[in-house]
Design brief:
Structural class of chain A: alpha/beta
CATH superfamily of chain A: Aconitase, domain 4
Order of helices and strands of chain A: EHHHEHEHEEEEHH
Strand content of chain A: 15-25%
Number of helices of chain B: 16
Helix content of chain B: 25-40%
Number of strands of chain A: 7
Oligomer: heterodimer
Largest sheet of chain B: 5 strands, parallel
Shape of chain B: globular
Number of strands of chain B: 18
Strand content of chain B: 15-25%
CATH topology of chain A: Aconitase, domain 4
Largest sheet of chain A: 7 strands, mixed
CATH class of the largest domain in chain B: Alpha Beta
Radius of gyration of chain B: 20 Å
CATH architecture of chain A: Alpha-Beta Barrel
Number of domains of chain A: 1
Shape of chain A: globular
Radius of gyration of chain A: 16 Å
Structural class of chain B: alpha/beta
Number of domains of chain B: 2
CATH class of chain A: Alpha Beta
CATH superfamily of the largest domain in chain B: Aconitase, domain 3
Chain lengths: 188, 417
């Protein structure tokens, strides 16, 4: 067994949700626009914090909304427009959104690598119509069913649930746990 | 039913008759991570209890994003990679050897391979007729540990590029045009297959530039069929035996075919802060600049440095412009020295950086001041990309970058050719 843990101040355990997929998540919406890049989520100028994810998480989305990292509450939602998470492959972007306590990311569309990374670290992502959701709206999200209730506005948004392969990984708490549990991929 | 290049490679490596939309588990040939993503990959391997890798000779760690290390935290991150590579018998590419994608295409990737890398521009190697794609640290850890990963077989957009490139217009302008056309999410989850007379006539260097930026349109990968140009490229690097012909079938099914005639194309520029904010150089000509950066996995090859040096030779860098030049690998650097190109850059006032990614990613080497403007040959101009969210980045070809360095403002390179 290789020992590198001494240099890394977090481990996957901190990223695993508590059966988040079966739960109805409830929290406030933080609204972001289109094209929120990984440079806005986890900027290159903080490259040296990549081996200190809790330290990096204090700056999550800072360049898109300077208040977010300071004021986000556990269970809140990142609600965005098109093409969320475009750019770099840095998994740290998804990991620090999770560490900041965000329950799920809801977006009109999501860039491919970010989508896979989020599921791999146990951060639910729902691709849905976010146009009627505003900052501060109280939302109730059923990840498994793909259903979002806007309690503030009394509206319901339904979307396709995650593909089975990704739901399996999310249900197991992320890709490392999935792999340990099944000894390989269990995609169907 | 015929197959696209992606479907052929994914079928061969999964042992299934793979078509767009299928989910397959496929063998991966080359797996890599770099110093920004690799420490997390090593951590995941440790959590998995992995002591032995199935394919250590084709598992590569690159120290290129913060190299040589500008701070102690990154020195420690580098040590994680060095120690793991040594214990696991994996390959390590040290500081100065080059940008991961350039090193992969020079020495590691061959046609027909599946390449998985913890870096979004892994798609660059697709120009060799490989299926190469970026993933995160955990996906890459699993691929390193098991020799496999899962894929959703992508639909393919066929980009049929025809016509002679006008004087002063390069592969970089072609891919900027395509991204402007389809948008930064125009190919999300899909493969871009670049074909047509123009692509067949392009050098490998130009094909790498096209595939490198496929991800800027959201694509999973960019690909070019392997042909005689590919064969000659491998032969030059004493890799003749790595050649294999990979072509799509005549009756392959594409989601869409997009015809692009480049014979009327102008030099283009991506303007802040999005890669799909494309404008002809004539529309932004005269924009004052503070820094010019020539290099990266997009445009740091010997062909790019030759174009830039030809324009710069006998001129001086504008006094208010800082010129940074970064050859993409040690091999490129040595060849540029041999050809006298490095001398040109230094004599005209440039700073030549060791091969690496630091300036482009905003880690070190050339971070912009508040309000400063950089014209760069890299692939991204997102806010904050070059280390300062108050900076402004324009993207262009090496020719446009070189001409602009002389003038101190964005300049049409055709005036200098």
């Amino acid at each position: 067994m290789l020992n590198v843990g001494w240099l890394l101040t977090t481990n996957s355990q901190q990223l695993i949700p508590d059966q988040v997929y079966t739960m109805k998540l409830k929290g406030r919406a933080w609204k972001f626009g289109d094209d929120i890049s990984t440079d806005l989520i986890a900027p290159g100028r903080l490259f040296h914090l990549r081996t200190n994810l809790p330290g990096l998480a204090k700056h999550v989305l800072e360049d898109a909304d300077p208040d977010f990292a300071k004021k986000v509450k556990p269970g809140d939602f990142v609600v965005a427009g098109r093409n969320f998470g475009l750019g770099s492959s840095r998994e740290h972007a998804a990991a620090i959104i999770k560490i900041a306590g965000v329950g799920a990311v809801l977006a009109q569309s999501v860039a491919r690598i970010f989508y896979r990374n989020a599921i791999n670290v146990g951060l639910p992502v729902l691709i849905c119509d976010t146009s009627q959701m505003d900052a501060g709206d109280e939302l109730e999200v059923d990840v498994g069913a793909g259903k979002i209730k806007n309690l503030t506005k009394g509206a319901v948004v339904e979307t396709k649930p995650l593909p089975k392969a990704m739901l399996n990984i999310l249900e197991d708490g992320g890709l490392v746990e999935h792999f340990k549990k099944h000894g390989g991929f269990k995609l169907d | 039913m015929g197959k696209t290049v992606s479907e052929k490679i994914l079928s061969a490596k999964s042992g299934q008759d793979a078509h767009a939309g299928d989910i397959v588990i496929a063998k991966v040939d080359v797996v890599m991570a770099q110093d920004g993503t690799g420490p997390l990959t090593v951590q995941k391997l440790e959590e998995l209890g992995v002591e032995k890798l199935p394919n250590p000779r084709r598992t590569v760690f690159f120290i290129d994003h913060a190299a040589p290390s500008p701070r102690k935290e990154l020195s420690n991150a580098h040590r994680i990679l060095r120690e793991f590579a040594k214990r696991a018998g994996a390959q390590l590419s040290e500081a100065g050897e080059g940008v991961c994608h350039q090193r992969l295409l020079e020495s590691h990737v061959k046609p027909g391979d599946i390449v998985v890398g913890a870096d979004s521009h892994t798609c660059t190697s697709g120009a060799l007729g490989a299926f190469a794609t970026g993933m995160g640290s955990t996906d890459v850890a699993i691929a390193m540990a098991s020799g496999k990963t899962w894929f959703r077989v992508p639909e393919t957009l066929k980009m049929e590029i025809t016509g002679q490139l006008p004087y002063g217009v390069y592969a970089k302008d072609v891919i900027l045009h395509i991204i402007g056309l389809i948008g930064s999410d125009g190919a999300t989850y899909k493969a871009l297959e670049f074909t047509g007379d123009t692509v067949r006539a392009m050098s490998m260097s130009d094909r790498f530039t096209l595939c490198n930026m496929a991800v800027e349109a959201g694509a999973k990968t960019g690909l070019v069929e392997s042909d005689e140009v590919t064969r000659a490229f491998l032969k030059e690097r004493e890799r003749t035996w790595d050649f294999e012909e990979i072509k799509s079938d005549e009756d392959a099914e594409y989601e869409r075919s997009i015809q692009i005639n480049v014979s009327g194309l102008e030099p283009l520029v991506a303007t802040p802060h999005m890669v799909d904010n494309i404008k002809p150089v004539s529309k932004v000509e005269g924009t004052s600049i503070d820094q010019v950066f020539i290099g990266t996995c997009t445009n740091g090859r010997i062909e790019d440095l030759r174009v830039a040096a030809n324009i710069l030779k006998g001129n001086r860098c504008h006094p208010k412009v800082r010129l940074l030049v970064c050859p993409a690998s040690k091999g490129v650097y040595l060849q540029a020295l041999d050809e006298g190109l490095i001398e040109v850059f230094i004599e005209m006032g440039g700073v030549v950086l060791n091969p690496g990614c630091g300036a482009c990613v905003g880690v070190h080497q050339g971070i912009l001041a508040d309000g400063e403007v950089c014209l760069a040959t890299q692939n991204r101009n997102f806010r904050g990309r070059m280390g300062n969210p108050e900076g402004f980045i324009y993207l262009a070809s090496p020719a446009t970058a070189a001409a602009s360095a002389i003038e101190g403002k964005i300049t049409d390179p055709r005036e200098y050719l």
